[in-house]
């Protein structure tokens, strides 16, 4: 149980385009989801907390207009990287807290490459 | 600001060795401490610790939390090459936005045959 599905797993896009990443909780409801970014050989950095039915809470230094988060239902949160640039290339991971003893469940991650 | 520090940064051992990974934290409104193993993709859950002094064990892995010292250790005995990964410690705390995780920088473990 407590599976989080994240798509796509890998995406290559051109500079200036937008990319949408989806994160779904498959067998539980997630009122809160978290979006992280991970650079090579570094740890996970929290970008924002996504709350169902309300605005996301962004961490300091994360541009709200660039990283649009929508959490329209209890099982789906999306992160849209708008007007992507090569420096946005990174590994993006979502997670949700489940009600069991497993803490937070992570999606499988999305590797974004902007060319 | 919540802070989680892991040590060592990296570690190289040989199969059969025992390793101890450390995690210390400074957070407000502590709720739990979690350990994850990350290989090529997303982190996989290992342990969730909420009570001090109670060891959690899963096969060759074990972990314990010390709330007085604000720290936790993860032990791996009889290491195998498949244990090679980044081990992440995260602390769950409660703030105005609700519960959230703060990750440490990770310990990169390499187990050589």
Outline of the structure:
With 115 residues, chain A is mainly beta. In chain A, 0% of the residues lie in helices and 53% in strands.
Write the layout of secondary structure elements.
The complex is a heterodimer of chains A (115) and B (113).
Chain A: E1 4-7, E2 10-13, E3 19-25, E4 32-38, E5 44-51, E6 57-58, E7 67-73, E8 76-81, E9 90-97, E10 104-106, E11 110-114
Parallel strand pairs in A: 2-11
Antiparallel strand pairs in A: 1-3, 3-8, 4-5, 4-9, 5-6, 7-8, 9-10, 9-11
Chain B: E1 3-7, E2 10-14, E3 19-26, E4 30-38, E5 44-49, E6 56-58, E7 61-66, E8 71-76, E9 85-95, E10 98-103, E11 107-112
Parallel strand pairs in B: 2-11
Antiparallel strand pairs in B: 1-3, 3-8, 4-5, 4-9, 6-7, 7-8, 9-10, 9-11
Strand content of chain A: over 45%
Report, as a whole number of angstroms, the end-to-end distance of chain B: 41 Å
Percent of residues in β-strands of chain B: over 45%
Strands of chain A, count: 11
Poorly predicted spans of chain B: none
Describe the protein:
The complex is a heterodimer of chains A (115) and B (113). Chain A is mostly beta strands and 115 residues long. In chain A, strands 2, 4, 5, 6, 9, 10 and 11 form a seven-stranded mixed sheet that branches. Chain A starts with a strand and ends with a strand. The mean pLDDT of chain A is 90. By secondary structure, chain B is an all-beta fold. Chain B is globular, with a radius of gyration of 14 Å. In chain B, strand 6 and strand 7 form a beta hairpin. Chain B has no helices and eleven strands. The termini of chain B are far apart.
Structure characteristics:
heterodimer; A: mainly beta; 7-stranded mixed sheet; globular; B: 113 residues; 6-stranded mixed sheet; 0% helix
